[in-house]
Amino acid sequence: MNLQTRLSLVILAIFLLVMTMATGVAIRSAQRAVAADTAATGRLVTEIIAALAGGNPDGVVFASVSAQLRQFAERHHLELAEVPVSSAPPTGAQVQQVAVAPGWFRRLVTPAANQQRAVIGAARAIGVTVSPEAEINEAWSEFRTLLSVILVFAVLTTALVFGGIRRGLRPLAGIIDGLVEIGRGNYAARLTRPGLPELRRVVDHVNGIATDLEQARQHALSLARRNLQIQEEERSYLARELHDELGQSLSAIKAVAVYIDQRARHADLELAASARTIADITNDVFGIVRRMMHRLKPAALSKHGLVPALEQLVDDWNARQSEVFCSLELKRVAGSAGESTAVALYRVVQEALTNVVRHANAQRVTVTLDIPPQESLSLIIEDDGCGFDVRGQAAGFGLAGIRERVLAAGGRCTLTTAPTKGTRIEVVIARPVHTKGSQA
């Protein structure tokens, strides 16, 4: 149960307890009142009979008293009977009663039978049986009124308290939504300050934590961008060194080997063969260096843009892989990806394809690129390989590097995988501001 339901049930239980106690007190009070009124009525009647009987002969007293007390007896439900003085008060007299109160209430408040005698002569007396029905009906009327007031008060109070609790807890829904948004990584989200002071303090602390997290993330993004910038600069430097230094050295070695081959071809066949072997090895090293240079600094990326660079990357990858085929699908290429974003997406595809070769055991890989006119850029790399359990396996350097690049580019990366279900990497990066002369 939520907090609102719990508080409402607790308050309702308190009201029920109070109503039960109030009902018990009211019934107890009604019991005492009925018993006291019944006894007082009996005493009053006997005193009236004694006063009326004064100076009258025995033969006419009962008829005279009965006639004079008829209306009083009917109103108070009295039974008058002439009895000998020596006999006990009548115990079996049945008084006609008008039942108004319910049976359960009458059973709770009806007192013991009240029977008295009024002596009217030397040998005669009038027995008086008092019915408590009038007092019971009167007590029931008062009890019903009191119970109605308590019920109305309880209903109104419960409704007011429930409404107050609901209104007081209403800001919690906004706080929870804000916390969920912050939990998703949107540290720029802020919670609205509610009216309750306690909740305001909570919201202020949460907003302060979100501000700190936002600043920490911006600092981390700045460091990540700088780190990636340094990496790209180092890659460019290594590519230039390979091209200028190692390339020239390999060219010199090949030129010397060709010269030796030409000079020794007629004089020393073994030396000429060795020179040709050196030239062949130099050509192989040239190929390796060119591939390294292309991986470190893709010429197509800087010259032609992201799409041609990805096409060349996929073609070269398929040329080297005989068991796995990679296809490139372009949904829309309606604008520029920006230089930094293009580099990030290119490196993501590069690293993802490397992971497929090393770990996926897949037969097919699909790279889908979508560069809409205004919306965010989308890149999806999906394979039909073995997949893995994300919960039971820590992310390797490849996936960590992909996430780091996407984060530094201001995007988000979603990994979906399961054993035997393949792996899907989805990257979404907010579209950069279009700069003149940039290419997709």
Descriptive account of the structure:
The chain is built from eleven helices and eight strands. With 440 residues, the protein is an alpha+beta fold. The protein folds into three domains: 3-156, no CATH class; 185-297, no CATH class; 301-440, Histidine kinase-like ATPase, C-terminal domain (Heat Shock Protein 90). A five-stranded mixed sheet has the order 4-5-6-8-7, with helices on one face. Strands 1-3-2 form a three-stranded antiparallel sheet. Helix 1 (3-53) packs antiparallel against helix 5 (133-183), helix 5 runs parallel beside helix 6 (197-264) and helix 6 (197-264) packs antiparallel against helix 7 (269-296). The chain starts with a helix and ends in an 11-residue tail after the last strand. The relative contact order is 0.06.
Order of helices and strands: HHHEHEEHHHHHEHEEHEE
The average pLDDT value, as a whole number, equals 77
Radius of gyration: 52 Å
Shape: rod-shaped
Number of strands: 8
Beta-strand level of the residues, as a percent range? 5-15%
- Uncertain ranges: 91-97, 434-439
Helix/strand-derived category reads alpha+beta
The tally of structural domains comes to: 3
Helical proportion? Answer: 55-70%
Count of individual helical segments:
11
Strand order of the largest sheet: 4-5-6-8-7
How is the main sheet built? Answer: 5 strands, mixed
Span between N and C termini? 54 Å
